[in-house]
Amino acid sequence: MSNKRTILLFVVLAYGFAWIIWLALWLSGVGLNSPWIQLASIVAMWMPALAVFILGKITNQPSGIKSKLVVKLKSNWRFYLLAIWLPAVISFLGAGLYFLVFPSNFSLGFESIQAILQEKGVLQSPIPLSSVVLIQILASLTYAPFLNSLFALGEEIGWRGYLYPALRERFSLVQTHVLLGLIWSLWHLPINLQGYNYGLTYFAYPVLGIVAMFLFCFSVGILLSWLMEKTGSIWASALFHGAINATAGLGLLFQLPGEKMSSLLIFGPSPAGIIAVLPCLFLALLILRRERKHHEFCK
């Protein structure tokens, strides 16, 4: 089977398995706050890995994933530290940029946490809200990236472990990242159409959300591929992926709640927003430019 056909088959499988899960829950009317959605998202994150496994059985060709699951920590520890803590820097810079544009949305009263507690029937937090925020920040910088990487690994096996090198065999470095960003972002479409990441009340729904998700996946995808190539391990990209998921919501702790604020989630403060993604996009383009020159020099 040709490289083009195996790529297409992988995409169909990765989309099909995940979309069946998300669309089934959407049609059943389950809300985003339901634990079923959280469970479905965890399962869906492993569907690209399942697609790689099934693709190997169909084509009877080795995927090469096993060699990329080796952790060479001694020679690459700096990149693993970057994978753990760089996402926090990106998230805070993005949130800071968002709040510079929308300063009236920023608050140190942590009303968003109080609103969540009230929705759950808790009228007053047993500990100060500032302590709750501190615990969340510490968690996102310590154990949360490792915990989340166990879920993110399923995606990384598919997107970075298989699809990235497969696309590189056919396309240039820039074309590969654009295509991978597009494929990865549209993979999230069913759950984003339900309001995940951006809500349902933003301007030009859902087109602007599709654009925002592409910018985010394109930017983060470059960093993830760069880490995998530098370390030779999918675990580095999985750790970064887990860390970005752990830190993406930190900016929301300082966001005022309310319907008006919800319509601005398309811009931030999570790094998936159009404004908040800019620091990540800037860094990704710098790395892409450097890697492109390196590849041209090696030729």
TrEMBL record:
One Pfam family per UniProt: Rce1-like
Keywords: Membrane, Transmembrane, Transmembrane helix
TM regions (residue ranges): 7-30, 36-58, 79-101, 133-153, 173-191, 203-227, 234-254, 266-288
Domain CAAX prenyl protease 2/Lysostaphin resistance protein A-like: 147-246
Highest rank taxon of the organism: Bacteria
InterPro entries: MmRce1-like, Rce1/LyrA-like_dom
Family, per entry: Belongs to the UPF0177 family.
Protein name: Type II CAAX endopeptidase family protein
